[in-house]
Task: inverse folding
């Protein structure tokens, strides 16, 4: 057994993170009794110092906002997936001391969609234009064969999304946020906005909606997801994404595959139910 058996999630704020619940559940299921997974409140200013003090007992880190870009200069290398969106959510420490950054959000999104039977669509819509939206675009590059329309609040955001589209090889079109209800005609809608942002859109869900991927998991269901489900639409939720990306992190950090998806999801569902 390797002596590298510490891992943690870093971010600010971090108290809400479900990552410790998911990773610890994986360790229990895999019989990794000497592994630990913690959470640390770390902002961009504190990140270099924190990472610089990590010793050989560390196997990996999970990163959440606002650290997904700030970590990159502190790494030895990053994968093509992480480079494609300039965002790292996973760091693995190798036995020779190298630090490799990856992005498991993108394959996690693809896996979460596939689990719900969504393999290919001919068009899609994204609500929002933040960091999660760029990861969603990277996932859609592999799922969507046609145009993706992003509904955004400003021309600056629209320009940013078109830029990501060019970079990722996705035909991105942009529209104003006040037209967001038009997104619901697409076979796949990805909502990447903060809690409450899409509540007013719930009444605009059509009679026979396609698939909604809402990246939030707390509170759940969102008003939009509840309305979508009531109309018979397919739902992929934030917990689905969280679990699938965490499974990939566990596999990379521990070297054990496949990661225990069912046990991790059950632990996440229980933790959310107790909040």
Result:
């Amino acid at each position: 057994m390797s002596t590298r058996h510490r891992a943690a999630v870093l971010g600010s704020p971090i108290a809400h993170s479900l990552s410790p619940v998911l990773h610890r559940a994986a360790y229990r299921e895999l019989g990794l009794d000497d592994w630990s997974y913690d959470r640390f409140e770390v902002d961009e200013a504190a990140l270099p110092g924190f990472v610089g003090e990590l010793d050989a007992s560390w196997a990996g880190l999970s990163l959440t906002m606002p650290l997904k870009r700030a970590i990159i200069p502190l790494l030895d290398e990053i994968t093509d997936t992480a480079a494609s969106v300039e965002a790292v959510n996973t760091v693995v420490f190798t036995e020779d001391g190298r630090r490799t950054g990856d992005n498991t959000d993108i394959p996690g999104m693809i896996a979460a969609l596939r689990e719900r039977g969504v393999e290919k669509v001919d068009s899609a819509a994204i609500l929002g234009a933040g960091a999660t939206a760029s990861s969603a675009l990277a996932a859609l590059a592999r799922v969507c064969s046609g145009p993706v329309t992003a509904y955004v609040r400003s021309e600056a955001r629209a320009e940013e999304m078109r830029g990501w589209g060019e970079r990722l090889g996705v035909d991105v079109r942009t529209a104003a946020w006040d037209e967001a209800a038009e997104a619901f005609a697409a076979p796949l809608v990805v909502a990447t906005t903060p809690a409450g942002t899409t509540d007013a859109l719930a009444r605009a869900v059509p009679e026979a909606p396609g698939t909604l991927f809402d990246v939030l998991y707390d509170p759940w269901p969102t008003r939009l997801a509840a309305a979508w489900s009531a109309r018979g639409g397919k739902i992929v939720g934030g917990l689905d994404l969280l679990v699938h990306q965490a499974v990939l992190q566990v596999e990379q950090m521990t070297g054990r595959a496949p990661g225990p998806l069912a046990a991790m999801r059950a632990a996440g569902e229980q933790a959310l139910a107790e909040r």
Remarks:
- The mean pLDDT is 96.
